[in-house]
Amino acid sequence: MISQAMQDTFNKQINEELFSAYLYVSMANYFEHTSLKGFAHWMRLQSEEELAHTRRFVTYLNDRGGRVVLDAIAAPQIEWDSPLAAFEAAYEHECHISACINAMVTQSVEEKDHASHAFLEWFVTEQVEEEANADDIVQQLKLMDGAPGGIFMMDRELAQRSASADPAPAE
Ligand code: FEO
Fold first, then answer.
1. How far is the CA of 151 from the centre of ligand 1 (A)?
2. Could you give the 3-state DSSP secondary structure of residue 122?
3. Residue 64's domain is classified under what CATH number?
């Protein structure tokens, strides 16, 4: 059975993952509004990944005899100054999520909760990819320096993103 303190931390992270999904839906709509369909597609898939992350946490907490307690999800920002500003915000958000996961790992070690420690390993690795994916796009947008030709080329490229090959386990 999971400790109350660890259960509280998992519930907090479930809220973080749901907010992540919400944030990326908001970014997808920002891109739809600016007619960048490929960027919007990329963000919609990112939002779906966040829902898959949420399901992993929910399934784990239930499996450990914990109680999932859903809290209100904060309203996300809806406007950004440019595609670069949106992806910089996405990158910063992923760094925040990595810090949350790292703090959970530390807590699991302190509590000698080996099951949570093992479970969280997947997320430690996943966050390396999450940060890298957003940062790659930030760096490419910086190189383009707002040139419309580059943005439209990138829009076509981001439209090719396909769903993750590593879906979350069923609840
Ligand atoms: Fe669930 Fe993008 O981290």
1. 25
2. helix
3. 1.20.1260.10
